[in-house]
Amino acid sequence: MLQKRQILRQKVLSNTEIRPNIFLLKVASPEISVSATPGQFCMLRVTEDKSNDPFLKRPLSIHWINKDTGEIQFLYRIVGRGTELLSLIREGEEIELIGPLGQGFKIEDKEIPIIVGGGIGIAPLLFLADILRGTRGVVILGAVTKSLLLRLGAFKESGLEILVATEDGSFGNKGLVTEVFDRLMARLDESDRKRCMVFSCGPFPMLRALYHLCKIYGVKCQVSLETFMACGTGLCLGCAVKAREGFLHVCKDGPCVDAKLIDWEG
Amino acid sequence: MIDLKVKIGTLRLKNPVLLASGTCGYGKELSDFLDVSMLGGIVVKGISLEPRKGNPPPRICETPCGLLNSIGLENVGVERFIREKLPWLRDKGVTVIVNCLGNSIDEYKELSGRLGNVDGIHALEINISCPNVKKGGALFGTDPELTFKVTKAVREETDLPIIIKLSPNVTDICEIARACQEGGATAVSLINTLLGMAIDIERKRPFLGNIFGGLSGPAIKPVALRMVWQVARCVDIPVIGIGGITSFKDAIEFFMAGATAIQVGTATLIDPTSSEKILSGIIDFMKENNYLKIADMKIVD
User: Fold this and answer.
1) Are A97 and A52 part of one and the same domain?
2) Does A85 lie in the same domain as A155?
3) Distances (CA, A) of B253 to A61, B194, B220, B250, B294
4) By three-state DSSP, how is residue B51 classified?
5) What whole-number distance in Å separates Cα of residue B282 and Cα of residue B297?
């Protein structure tokens, strides 16, 4: 019989607040580090408490992986009780998790990768940028203001060209990532645009605006989606999002999907 | 020597742990984590005559010790189930119970007739209790007369064991259970989810796309246990206990209340191997307490 996948219990290396309410969680997980691809996620149990409250695991995309050391990272923001409890886990403690899960980004060698991330949505994109090291790729990172710009130094290490947008102009270009993307596309010629593949994650309105620009420029686009999830493994069908036809299930069909499959007005 | 086997009419289960409908897909989805064939059986995702897309999102909402869902019986329809999903289960030697949903008595009849002629299906669980669909579902399960009619209609259509899945959203669960027995049901399973809701106070609207949803998980276990206790004492047919079972201790409580078998539902969503752990916990408990059969655990009152 085939080896069954395990529910892993792994050691927490650190769980640090890098900005107010934003945490970088590092976990020793050789199993996940060897098999995961950029864009995939894990389900994490946020507490060792046996009280069944909170009851569900939490889905977090894999932020970065060090295949040599077996370290995996998650970047998350405290948004509710689950992530608040997760933030209390300390170095040396164990965490229960399942992964890697779902569909990652589809990467083709001949493409010019354009990575676009907004706010905490940059979480799944560092692992991707690292994998795309040495390509002609461009990374566009956005935040409301300079102090909320996340992991800029880590993205720079990928060697890709980095463009930054802050809404208040406190760092990089003033404005939205979509405006930076628009200008970037405008200066590329038709044949280069055809070779571009956009990889994006961020708030829904940002993804929608980005998808509309991609349509105008004739550029392919993949997005990483976020929804409420119960199981993360395709059992409950709870993570449905509206698609052009019927629904997509974020845990199995995604989280990374071709943007044209989504019903953006739904 | 402990005997874990249980009988539900002509249905023979190697052990009393089943996977509950809607929390285990069609079995294959779980197979990365679990050897489904080592369990008593699987109750597959509810099947209707035609495929159903399900309800608009959001479909789930976590609540204290529980989960609200309004999936809306998204399923591939009976023909695709038979063609694409059943062969895998048959090959693995899994005991398959098909959860059936109709919009009318005629649809329940047609569905059970269709499934009754297919190799690899061991029993039907008739879903007259789904709170998340407009027609059918709970409409039947909250009315004793309609419950009787559906049960009788399905009974006349197939020789397979018939398990009627009951709704807790009723005033008198025994009245409904007796209607099942009179209609010729082999067994009853209970409870389905409790009708509930949540409101998003920031957006100032109901949280779930379908407004109402079904509450499951440890939060509902006391209600489920009470109803299983009642039903086990008002009908003579076997009772299958469902509702918030997440540990072997929960399962033992249901056996003590009078359940012949149990279903693990929402717990599988959090830990896909829950059912396996519950089964091994049951075995250990029986050994330590010198129980030889599942039925020996029932509290005699």
Assistant:
1) yes
2) no
3) 38, 20, 14, 5, 12
4) coil
5) 11
CA distance A230 to chain B (A): 6
SS3 B80: helix
**Between the CA of residue A137 and those of A100, A131, A133, B277, what are the distances in Å?**
25, 11, 8, 47
Taking an 8 Å cut-off on Cβ atoms, the answer to whether A53 and B64 are in contact is yes
pLDDT tens digit sequence for A138-159: 999 999 999 999 999 999 999 9
Nearest residue, CB atoms, A237 vs list B34, B54, B67? B54
Q: Which residues of B touch A51 (CB under 8 A)?
A: 65
Q: In angstroms, rounded to a whole number, what is the distance separating the alpha carbons of residues B187 and B238?
A: 5
CATH number at residue A33: 2.40.30.10
| Cβ distance of B59 and A239 shorter than 8 Å | yes
- Token output for A266: 């739904």
CA A170 to chain centre: 24
Looking at CATH, the fold of the domain delimited by B6-297 is given as: TIM Barrel (3.20.20)
What is the domain partition of chain B in residue ranges? 6-297
Q: For residue B90, count CB atoms less than 10 angstroms from its CB and return exposed for 0-12, middle for 13-18, buried for 19 or more.
A: middle
Q: Do A242 and B59 touch (CB under 8 A)?
A: no
What pTM was computed for the model? 0.95
Question: Cα A203 vs. chain centroid, distance in angstroms?
Answer: 11
Is residue A139 domain-shared with residue A203, that is, in the same domain? yes
Contact call for A55 and B33, based on CB within 8 A: no
How many CA atoms within 13 Å lie on the side-chain side of B239? 31
Domain holding A234, by residue range, is: 112-261
> Closest approach of chain A CAs to the CA of B182, in angstroms?
33
Residue numbers in B near A5 (CB within 8 A): 32-33
Q: Indicate the pairing of strand A112-118 with strand A138-143.
A: parallel
Could you tell me if residue A229 is inside a domain? yes
What's the token pair of residue A48? 């060792």
Residue A1 belongs to a domain: no
Q: Tokens standing for A76?
A: 């998350």
B116 touches chain A (CB under 8 A): no
Alpha-carbon gap: A133 to the closest alpha carbon of chain B (Å): 33
| Domain identity same for A82 and A131 | no
Strands A22-28 and A41-44, bridge-based pairing: unpaired
Q: What is the pLDDT of residues B50-64, one digit of tens each?
A: 999 999 999 999 999
Same domain, residue pair A24 and A116: no
Per-residue pLDDT 10s for chain A (266 aa) are 446 788 999 999 999 999 999 999 999 999 999 999 999 999 999 988 788 899 999 999 999 999 999 999 999 999 999 999 999 999 999 999 999 999 999 999 889 999 999 999 999 999 999 999 999 999 999 999 999 999 999 999 999 999 999 999 999 999 999 999 999 999 999 999 999 999 999 999 999 999 999 999 999 999 999 999 999 999 999 999 999 999 999 999 999 999 999 999 97
Q: Are A125 and A229 part of one and the same domain?
A: yes
Instruction: Please count the structural domains in chain A.
Output: 2
